[in-house]
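From the pipeline queue, job 12 of 40. The input is one protein chain; the requested action is below.

Action: predict structure.
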Amino acid sequence: MSREHFAWAARPSLKSVLMASAAVLVAGATSSAASAQQVASNTVETVVVTGSYQESLTAARNIKRESVILKDAIVAEDMAKFPELNLAESLQRLPGVQITREAGEGRRISLRGLGPDFARVQLNGMEVLGNVDSAQDSRGQRSRDRSFDFNIFASELFSKVEVEKTFQASQNEGGMAGTVGLFTGKPLDYNTGFKGAVTAKAGSNQYTGDLQPRIAALASYNWDDKFGIAVSVAYGHRRTTEEGHNTYNYSLLGATTTDAKTGKQTGKALDLVASGVDISHLSADKQQRFLAGNLYFPDGNRISSWNGKQDRLGLTAAVQWKPTNNILLTLDALHGEFTVHRDELHLATRPLNGLGSTNLDGPKGSPWPAIFQNATVFNNYTVDANGYVTMTDSSNVTFGSEHRREKNLNVFNQGVLTGTWDVSDALTIDGHIGAEKSLYKTPYDDKLYMRAKGGLIANYGTDGRSASFQYTNWDPTNPANYAMDNFYYRAFNNSSELKEGVLNARYKLDEHVTLRAGVAYHNFSQNGASYYYDGGDNGTTAITRGTSVADITTVFHNSYGSWLIGDYDKAFAKYKEYHRLAPKADGTGGALKDIENVFKVDEKTVSYYAQVDWDSEMFGKPFRGNIGVRGYSTDTRSQGWIQGKNYAYLGTADVKGSYDGLLPALNTVLELTPEVLVRFTATQNLNRPSLGSIAAQGSAFQNNTSTCDPTAPNSKSNCDFTASRGNPNLKPFLDTTLDLGVEYYFGKVGLISVGVFQKYVKNFITSKTWSIDNGNALTYAQAQISPATTPGATADTLLESFSMPINDPGTKKITGVELAAQSQFDFLPAPFNNLGAVVNYTYVDFPQSITGISNTSYNATLYYETSDWGARASLSHRSSWFTGHGATPMSADTRGFTGGNYVDAALFYNITDQLQATLDAVNLTNQKDTQFWGQNRYLYNQTQSGTTYMGGISYKF
């Protein structure tokens, strides 16, 4: 432990030196005008596009061609006019990029065989972390991680996006899948004088039928390339709906067993029948099969609608100043807000006295009304070879009608001061200093819960992969079939902060060789907490349960059915309730007991590098590249609550760790001809552990409180101390990557590229348990758990079991192939010479333990463009992918998404040289988003979000 403490204490002095150096550099004539990503690659000629999709393809192609590292780019067609409505949807057009969607809109990316947590994102050269939320638990609803949600910002704010797929020493370490660079517009990138653009769009979705405005404006003034100011604003409002069928996976009706001595049979099936569940309508064979047990019944049997009202606001400002011809200073600022007011509406099977969340329920007495005193009548069912019940026909099923309302607020702020100083023709110094903060907050997340009784036929098809529900012999819109249950109040918050300083020097030895060196400081922190206040603790159950809902409901309807939902205004007024996390003002309502996920994580990194760039010849052919090494030293500290039974706070764990290393990198480009390039790279990079894994939050229990004697030689039998926590001492993922690619450039737009890559990744994270049974038990001191968290324990007390995440010592191999082509068909006779296409295909082979990525994906865009008008249509496909794997066929740990195709289209017409009309269509085929569980891929969740159409005009001046 002494090393960790000393490293932690020493770091501030390193930070002070670096931050002071960077500040002096910027103030006196340093820092980086080109962003860190631009510095990290060869300087490329600035391309000014004038509104053509074809010209934006040409600009992106030039960036790729001139870069030493493997890089793909997307360039805005004009000011405030990115090619897509969403950054993620644009990125999926690049080879090796796959995206997830939320309400039909792109959200996160997976890159080159690794999931969203492995792609690093930079904004104007500074690393950025920004999370929004998902409507669904099955998508990781509130997971706070290193992934970036690309729907947090409006696409109109950005002028360029670059994806760096290989690593070089002059880059900051991290993001071993790749680095995505986001760039806002700079005033000195435009011609002198004033330039501006305004875009206004309005549209609607086939399900919501609302008016969805989207407005963006950018203004820039360039004073003779000496001083410039650019500002932009983007605002959008839209309603979203996802609706469909879903389950909670299953509840297992266990096998009926016979006691060897008494001959008495026991089992859940017998218990259900004894409680009143009527199986007399089943055939004799099906009765016998039911009583034998070992049946997997679908949980939930739910129809759902996730409805959101989204407001997205983005503001950017950039100031550039060239006090002399060899000094450029740039100040960038960005503010983003993404707010969602969501209403989730569900009708699901939720027994009061039965099996899990299935359609099997016994009678329930007071305070429930008379209809709840009738047990389920089980009329019929079908079962497959695995024991999964694919169809049920039941009467007197107990349902839950859940109305969940929530507000999610995401606020992002960043400021970066960058610059460059050409000290001489040979020496250039650059760098940046910056800070950013990301706040995620859910001030309220409430549930209004009602129960109902009625019949249900739930059919999941012969393979269990589809769903249809029939509500038999009852009216789901009649209040007489319902009773109130209770309210559930929740709230969440999480914030991240980053402070960064970078200082680089570049010295040109001669026309062929350039030396680079630099140092960087990175200070990241994150904290959060979750608050749960259920109906028992908040006191609403005793007051509301079993009461009439006639005066507090409204009828909800979607494509899958109609049912009653609770109305918050009416229900709050009736029961004198409101969102709260404490007893009411009159003192009624219990204490808030359940506070979870309380943690704070700090990471401080100092890194440094040396790199040699060359541009010469090999075998008479132009040959360029770089070779270098990057060193890093990271200190971590994590503080988290240790909690016991009923989430009682027992104490705070405070754990420190550190790791360091060197990362070599080689990137080469050989020009066989002016049109044909061959690339080869051999690099090492890292990915820091997930935030959830290093958070020190955990639990500690003394399981036998009545006879515990911790002084006994072996306390296993009488104390049973157990604990778990996160592990701030986790080492980063490390990879060695080899890349080989061939690129052929032709015409103004034309490109054909073939690339293969192989990654060898180690230090994946798994879980380990130390226990007395295994002979490797730890003491409280060794586990770094305070003994004060458990009555009777001391620092030397052995833990019966202790678990935490650790690094897997094995190495995993990922192999991929990327193919891409784009061309303007100008060889065709008019008018077909205005046609063009952009296509790519990616195949990745990886071990089963790596999740979040598809084996295959491809994209195709066909466009037609003249000086007056243009149109394009795009198809995006990714095959099925897994989010988890279980060892047995029916394990719900096996989860994933089926493959799908998304089709989008865009049309523009130039009314004048300055005024353009546009029409966009997103998700034209209303693609189903389907999640599955189990090795047989049974239906877990299937939704549709509808097609969105957006028309507008843009004016540039």
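Job complete. The mean pLDDT is 89.
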